[in-house]
Amino acid sequence: MSLKDKVSSISFFCGWALSISFALGFGTIRIAQANVGDFVGFGARTMALGGAGVAGDTGGFAAYHNPAALAGFGKERLTLNYGLVFVRPQFLPISNVVTQNDYVADSSPPLSGSVDTQYRDTFGQVLGLSFELLPDVGHLTVGLVTFLPLNQLAYMDSGQPYIPEYFLYRSRTQRPQVELGAGYQVLPSLRVGAGLHTGFGLTGNASVFMNTAANRISTMTFAASLKPVFSGYVGVLWTPGAEEGKQEGPLNLGLVYRMAASSDMVLPMTASARVLGTTPAAVDLIFTAASSLYYDPAALESGVSFKTGDHRWVAQVDYQIWSGYKTAALSMSQGTATSGGAQGLIQINPGILPSYVYSNILVPRAGWEWNLNRGNTVRLGYSYRPSVLKEVSNGIGNALDPSKHLVTAGWGFHFDSFLGYSVPVQLDLALNYQQLMTQSITKDSNGNEAGITANSQQKIGYPGYNAGGRLFGGAVSLALAF
To answer: Which of 74, 168, 239, 338 is most buried as measured by Cβ atoms within 10 A of its Cβ?
Structure first.
């Protein structure tokens, strides 16, 4: 193949990659809000190092992990990373507990049964793209990182506020994620960057009319609008002694600050019912439900990466501010009847969410990699994530978030050519295992959530259960530089 044909083929491939990247990124920007990066890390290399990516070489995924690393990290202007990530949760079963009482439903005596602990797998494709926009102006580079689930476009579930729920695992990674970043080289060893984490706000209106007469029908309408919501983050990377065209030097220091991100939903609803056959008068009930569908905390992430011989060591500490967490459960405001002869006589009690105290947490991460030779690298990683709940849910409510240990391993392969072209390629594999520490939840028998003991009422979750489990999976990613 002639040089002209090679250049033409590579140009075509680059154009195709750019088209796919922006189609996935901007095509999903209005429904993006997740945090795969915090959950397992973008890219198999970062996953294998325990998720520590603030001060390391994350390639095209730098727009998320540290946008400062985008600037001037390679001799090539275009870098493309593509990969797959899979994590399967297996939580302990919760059986023979109270699942419904007269505090949350018309249930007297209370009903007991099993709780759903079969959560969806995290399975999707990740794409990282960086392009050096202005090589002569501080190596100004822009980047795009996306996560697109493969088992559905998006999944939203507010959950039930009183049933046992692993609230950070139900749907947090079940929708697209889009990160936009830019990096600038201030000094040969100092780079800065900024990025945008995209989310959305959902506003809807619903109207329901219910008929009991045989010659009448019931109707329902729903309308909603999505508006993009953005939260920013900034990063700094210091790499003294790094060679030209190399992102990592003998010593790397990185720092990233992320603003909190919340995707809120407001749903005004009018419910009308003609319950007395064909009687003209119908009762209109008006109320509003509100929720924070997804929430990512503000965080300060600091990391270090240093090399000793053929070994590289990375360490990172994330300070995550969960004290402002907004629950994903829907909460109804007070409603009233407005017609049907019942105006002012019927009032709907507002919803009351269980009261939890959330704590700010420190998440330590550490990783090690050993370059066996130019083409093979072995990696190991570890991180520990404490619970964001200050206390175990022995009282009212059953929010679950056990602390967990995360152990990772991986292997990297480097090739000097790709499909016969002189294009360097990096293939990375990773395995991920997360062990949740078992918690023992105990509920007393002193009545339901309102303290009512009539009809043998007990709290949801009575008499108690064990919470915990494990998650396991892995990732594969391919990096090309043009």
So the answer is: 239
What 3-state class would DSSP assign to 424?
A: coil
Under 8 Å between Cβ of 283 and 256 = no
CA separation for the pair 250, 257 (Å, rounded) = 24
Q: Per the structure block, which two tokens stand in for 58?
A: 């994350």
Phi, psi of 43 (to 5 degrees): 90, 145
Domain edges within the chain: 3-481
Contact (CB, 8 A) for 224 and 201? no
Of 171, 150, 143, residue with least CA distance to 65: 143
Residues 459 and 394: their CA atoms lie apart, in Å, by: 10
The pair of three-digit structure tokens given for residue 39, joined into one six-digit string: 């959950």
Omega before 297 cis (within 30°)? Answer: no
Instruction: Please tell me the distance from the alpha carbon of residue 126 to that of residue 149, in angstroms, as a whole number.
Output: 9
Q: Residue 12: what pLDDT? A: 37
φ, ψ of residue 113 to 5 degrees: the values are 180, -155
Measure the CA angle with vertex 287, ends 285 and 290; round to 5°: 155
The two beta strands, 190-211 and 261-274, are parallel
Where residue 447 falls (left for φ over 0; alpha for ψ -120 to 50; beta otherwise) is left
- Helix or strand run (H / E) with residue 361: strand 361-373
pLDDT band at 38 (very low <50, low <70, confident <90, very high): confident
Q: Which of 400, 474, 358, 443 is nearest to 91 (CA)?
A: 400
Q: How do strand 376-385 and strand 399-400 relate by DSSP bridges?
A: unpaired
* 3-state class (DSSP) for residue 154: coil
331-332 and 311-321: which strand pairing? unpaired
Residue 255: exposure state from Cβ atoms within 10 A (0-12, 13-18, ≥19): middle
Q: Retrieve residue 42's tokens.
A: 């973008």
Residue type, 480: L
CATH class held by domain 3-481: mainly beta
Residue pointed to by tokens 């580079």? 141
Write out the two tokens for 380: 């190991």
First to last CA, the chain: 18
* Separation of alpha carbons 92 and 353, rounded Å: 25
Quote the CA–CA distance of 166 and 388 in Å, as a whole number.
12
Handedness of CA 145, 150, 152, 153 (dihedral sign): positive
Which residue from 196, 191, 177 is spatially nearest to 141, judged by alpha carbons? 191
Q: How many CA atoms lie within 13 A of 104 on its CB side?
A: 22
pLDDT greater than 50 at residue 448: yes
Which of 257, 62, 258, 263 has its CA nearest to residue 174? Answer: 263
Could you check whether the bond before residue 93 is cis, i.e. omega within 30 degrees of 0? no
Mean pLDDT along residues 371-381: 93
Question: Reduced to 3 states, what is the DSSP secondary structure of residue 408?
Answer: strand
